[in-house]
Amino acid sequence: MNITWLLNLKVGKMGCDGGTIPRRDELVRTQKKPEQKDKAAELAFRWNCCTISQHPLQKPIVACGLGRLYTKMSILESLLDKKNFPDVASHIKSLKDVKDLNLTPNPAYKEGSVEKGDGVSDRGSSPFICPVIGLEMNGRFGFVFLWSCGCVFSERALKEVKTSTCH
Question: Which biological processes are named by the entry's GO terms (predicted)?
Answer without folding.
Answer: DNA replication termination
